[in-house]
Amino acid sequence: MKRIGIKYCGGCNPVMDRVKLVQEISRQLPPEFVLEDHQTYNPWDIGILVCGCLTACADQSEFKDLAREWIIVAGYTVDLNCTPEEKIAESAISKIQNIK
Q: For residues 76 and 93, what is the distance between their CA atoms, to the nearest angstrom?
């Protein structure tokens, strides 16, 4: 089972509903993955940084060690690729499944 960690930005200027996005990812996540929003001593297998706007100010170096691999959602982008809001969860899940 792979652990997927969630890290949120501060939410100061969101253009999208960050909580709704994470709920959608959770609902669509295949059973071999588990979603976590708390940090343990072991790094997550994959981290999803959920930023409400394109600034992605929460993308800080001190968080990099919290997960082995990161997916960055910033506004309507996933890893800097423009993504329609209704496709963000699907895109993130596709990336999760493609990380070895």
A: 15
CA 15 to CA 75: how far, in whole Å? 6
pLDDT value at residue 70: 96
Q: Which residues pair with 5 in a beta bridge?
A: 36, 47
Residue 67 CA to residue 97 CA, distance in Å, equals: 16
* Cβ–Cβ under 8 Å, residues 58 and 85: no
For the whole prediction, is pTM greater than 0.90? yes
Pick from 60, 48, 31, 52: nearest CA to 92: 48
CA angle (42 as vertex; 28, 51 as ends), nearest 5:
50
Do residues 74 and 55 touch, judged by C-beta distance below 8 A? yes
Residue 49's SS3 state is: strand
Domain locations along the chain: 2-98
Tokens (6 digits) for 2:
């792979």
Q: Give the largest CA-CA distance in the chain.
A: 35
